[in-house]
Write a structure and sequence with these properties.
By secondary structure, the chain is α/β, with parallel strands linked by helices. The chain folds into two domains: about 130 residues, ATPase, nucleotide binding domain (Nucleotidyltransferase, domain 5); about 80 residues, Nucleotidyltransferase, domain 5 (2-Layer Sandwich), CATH 3.30.420.40. Helix content is about 35%, strand content about 30%. The chain has eight helices and twelve strands. The strands form three sheets. A five-stranded mixed sheet has the order 3-2-1-4-5, with helices on both faces. Strands 10-7-6-11-12 form a five-stranded mixed sheet, sandwiched between helices. The N and C termini lie far apart (about 50 Å).
Amino acid sequence: MKILAVDTATKSCSVAVVEKRSLLAEMTTVRKQTHSKHLMEMIERVMSLSGLALSELDGFAVTSGPGTFTGMRIGISSVKGFATALGKPVVGVSSLDALAMQASFFPYLICPFIDASRGEVYFSRYKFRNGHLKKETDEQVSPPEKAVFGPNEACLFIGDGALLYQKTILNKMGKSAFFASSFQNTIRASTVAYLSMDRFKNEDTDNVGIFVPNYIRRSDAELNLTVS
């Protein structure tokens, strides 16, 4: 199983090629420019480093959200274009799932936070049970002080939202709050690829024609229209 995975859900952009459980090539960058400026170049370079042609891939994986509206549309539309042209399947992976997977060493609650702007975060809570990632709550969006309200046990926070609102989290949870190492807060496309593998094997893929981002919250334009 050879998979090209793409993440554009946050400020970072990541592309990886994975064969079975082996990482063949990966590139991750954080730039102020929109992801459309460099995504295709990154895909070309990672494919070249992997030694594979696009036609040799078995499928594509991409973060489906939540995250930045523009970023998600860029990644998903690019992957849908490749999948349609090559007749290959697509699997969408939650960006919160990917962050939680990158903290799999933690034995208690894992709380990925993604900055949602407007003073809010996208979040969920996870635990690893018997070697498998289990989602403890639905994916939601709320102010960070409400997102941390509730856990009465040790919790690891991970993601750009955890960095942004670290003081708020500490004020609410004190010594019960732990934070991932800095390099773990960026979603890696290889993690997205690994999370997609079982769904590819089970032929539980997404319908390319109707596959859309999981926004959770309405766009700023829609919110502003409602207010006006």
